[in-house]
Amino acid sequence: MKLRFWIDSETGLPHVYDHGVTEAEVGQVLSRPKLNFPQGKQSRIVLGQTSAGRPLKVVYVPDEDADSGFVVTAYELRGQALKAYRRAVRRKKR
Question: pTM for this structure?
Answer without folding.
Answer: 0.93
